[in-house]
Prior knowledge:
Elements: H1 11-19, E1 26-29, E2 35-38, H2 41-47, E3 79-82, H3 85-89, H4 93-105, E4 112-115, H5 117-131
Parallel strand pairs: 3-4
Antiparallel strand pairs: 1-2
Amino acid sequence: VMDYCYVALDFEEELERIENLDGPLHVVTMENGTVLELGKECIIAPEVLFNPGLVGMDKGSIMSLFQKYNFTDQSVFPTLILSGGNALGLTGLGERIQREIMNSTNTDLQLNIIRSKVEEDALRFFEWQTNSCY
């Protein structure tokens, strides 16, 4: 199901768009024949990274990691490297982080946000290795 999730640049706007669709965003048939219709779940799951209150948590948003630093100074964070499972698997994560930082600092600071190429290659190999077992 992770292949269908993505980070919405504007969560409320995207949620409204999905809720106004005539049908689901995706229909997935599992190996056992179960059919899943995916809609707003595709954006709610990743939104928990930015808004943990969606699952009843009051701390731990991805942006809380950045609140300690001065993002108005380009020399502090000129480059942000995304690595790990969510960073590599969620489309739109880098763009949303950029937008959240710009909104919270009221600046047009442009970070160089890149994905870890080493981990991306390792993830591709892991998927191939895991699928080869079936």
